[in-house]
TrEMBL record, chain A:
It comes from Rhodovarius crocodyli. It comes from the Bacteria. InterPro entries: Thiolase, Thiolase-like, Thiolase_C_2. Residues 238-376 form the Thiolase C-terminal domain. This is Thiolase domain-containing protein.
Automatic annotation (TrEMBL), chain B:
Pfam families: OB_ChsH2_C, zf-ChsH2. Residues 23-48 form the ChsH2 rubredoxin-like zinc ribbon domain. This is DNA-binding protein. InterPro entries: ChsH2_C, ChsH2_Znr, NA-bd_OB-fold, Thioester_dehydratase-like. Residues 61-117 form the ChsH2 C-terminal OB-fold domain. GO terms for molecular function: DNA binding. Keywords: DNA-binding. It comes from the Bacteria.
Length: 387, 131
């Protein structure tokens, strides 16, 4: 059990930040989260960021925002899942008495910078031991996740139409989000008839590339209870890293198996107790694999689980990504974990758009995946309770 | 209409003291795997320590260079090419390209064999073609 609460959450409204710097975006989302919480910058005594923050670890952003009262910093970077893991670390530090009020920020501008996120061969820098065995083969984010989809189809009979249902659900939600990059509702046919990017993934199986960011503030219970916002407790969390296991590659599952198990055990609840789930949606297949790994359905049944609107709020059993997710709303800085936490907080507070707000929002979940499902990735799971 | 694999020439792999034996062997047309001498297990990618024990009691051994496709994807566009994982008969799965074939006919489970392909100014790299 923790004594940590998410007291502030803010998603930047921009999706293309041509006139702002990355540091500026970090500061703007920090201010937004402080305003949302009813706190000021001098209340912050812990700060966390990941690889999207400019400069060395947290140092440049701490200076840019002129944070002066920090007792704790953490720049754990597992790619897009970092911010989900940060929430867990923040809860740990609050419990340990190392900090009272921790700010977590994410921001970036890949769209303004013209980045080919998914289809370009990208290096993480010199000295990375795995890259000489991968980069020559032109691996891209799209082809790597496509290999996960290809194997899922081969092993479990998953179809392109089933994967498309993930996008259909996300787009059904995005129509209510005035900031969504892709607010148009699409059909299964629209998805499977969109251009093939990397077999078997079509263009509409892929998330958006967007600028912007988000921030959350995690604080101890005494602070949370003095503020005027609905109480959202961090009830459980877990993290795990999965990789190629020295050549014993298995593309059928993700690190969410372990991160989820840890989070559910800590929270003392089970998947069927969860009323809303934010699931990392870099690609439609990513969602299917995570839903299985978290225990929302049996391994291999994810394709069948997402069919017929089962992820649509008000229609299906497990409403997901009611902001439109990374597939339709926002995937700032190519890292979708922060927006996953933010929408789970909106749902827990009862502040999602009325058309997609779940009625019983007692328990919500946010799951993040960073890196590549195909090679190395880190997953973080957070379970939130509305008090 | 078949989709012939585009003959892309990859950038040279970064060589370092750790992976030098692998790329030296590649220049002689040999695909090396790591072998942990304490456990008797193969590993990939090759490295100077055992991924099973972290001891340096390892050696590099030559693969037979045959296996089957575990998964694949074609990056579409003007210059399509096929990324794949191939499971070698030695039991390790490695990232590679499927080349010299119709990309529309690539399948999971397909038998493939090793072929080295040149890179841009560096060591050749192991790719696979239908057996």
């Amino acid at each position: 059990m923790t004594n940590a609460f998410i007291v502030g959450a803010y998603e930047h409204p921009t999706r293309k930040a041509e006139t702002k710097s990355t540091a500026q975006l970090h500061a703007e989302v920090a201010f937004g989260a402080l305003q949302d919480a009813g706190l000021t910058v001098d209340d912050i005594d812990g700060y966390m960021c990941a690889g999207d923050a400019p400069g060395m670890g947290p140092l440049s952003m701490v200076e840019y925002m002129n944070l002066r009262k920090l007792r704790y910093v953490d720049s754990t970077d597992t790619g897009g899942s970092s911010y989900v893991i940060h929430v867990g670390h923040a809860a740990d530090m609050i419990k340990a008495g190392k900090a009272d009020c921790i700010l977590i920020t994410l921001a970036g501008r890949p769209r303004a910078e013209g980045m080919q996120t998914g289809t370009a061969v990208r290096s993480a820098g010199s000295g990375v031991p795995d890259e000489p065995f991968e980069l020559p083969f032109g691996r891209t984010i799209a082809t790597m996740h496509a290999m996960v989809a290809q194997r899922h189809m081969y092993q479990f009979g998953t179809t392109s139409e089933q994967m498309a249902w993930v996008k259909v659900a996300a787009s059904t939600h995005a129509q209510y989000n005035p900031h969504a990059m892709l607010p148009k509702v699409v059909t299964v046919e629209d998805v499977v008839n969109s251009p093939m990017i990397a077999d078997p993934l079509h263009r509409l199986d892929c998330c958006v590339i967007s600028d912007g960011g988000g921030a959350v503030i995690v604080a101890r219970e005494e602070i949370a209870r003095k503020l005027k916002r609905p109480l959202v407790k961090v009830k459980g969390y877990g993290e795990h890293v999965k990789h190629q296991m020295a050549g014993q590659v298995d593309l059928t599952y993700s690190a969410s198996v372990q991160s989820g198990k840890t989070a559910f055990s800590m929270a003392g609840c089970k998947p069927s107790d969860i009323k809303y789930a934010s699931i990392y949606d870099s690609f439609t297949i990513s969602v299917i694999v995570q839903l299985e790994d978290l225990g929302f359905c049996e391994k291999g049944q994810g394709g069948r689980f997402v069919m017929d609107g089962n992820l649509i709020s008000g229609v299906g059993k497990l409403p997901f990504n009611t902001d439109g997710g990374g597939l339709c709303n926002n995937h700032p800085s190519n890292r979708g974990g922060m927006t996953k936490v933010i929408e789970a907080v909106r749902q827990a507070r009862g502040e999602a758009h009325p058309a997609v707000q779940v009625k019983d929002h007692s328990l919500t979940l946010a799951n993040g995946k960073g890196g590549s499902l195909c090679t190395r990735h880190g997953c973080g799971t957070v379970i939130l309770e509305a008090l | 209409m078949p989709t012939p694999a585009f003959d892309r020439v990859p950038a040279a792999p970064n060589e370092d003291p750790d992976n030098k034996p692998f790329f030296d062997a590649a220049r002689e047309g040999k695909l090396l795997l790591g072998l942990c001498k304490d456990t008797g297990k193969h590993f990939f990618y090759p490295r100077g320590v055992s991924p099973y024990t972290l001891s340096s009691n390892v050696e590099f051994v030559e693969s037979k260079g045959v296996g089957e496709i575990y998964s694949w994807s074609v990056q579409r566009g003007k210059e399509p090419y096929c990324l794949a994982y191939v499971t070698l008969t030695e039991g390790v799965t490695i990232m590679t390209n499927i080349v010299d074939t119709d990309l529309d006919a690539v399948k999971v489970g397909q038998k493939v064999k090793l072929v080295f392909k040149p890179t841009n100014g560096g060591a050749p790299v192991p790719m696979f073609t239908p057996a």
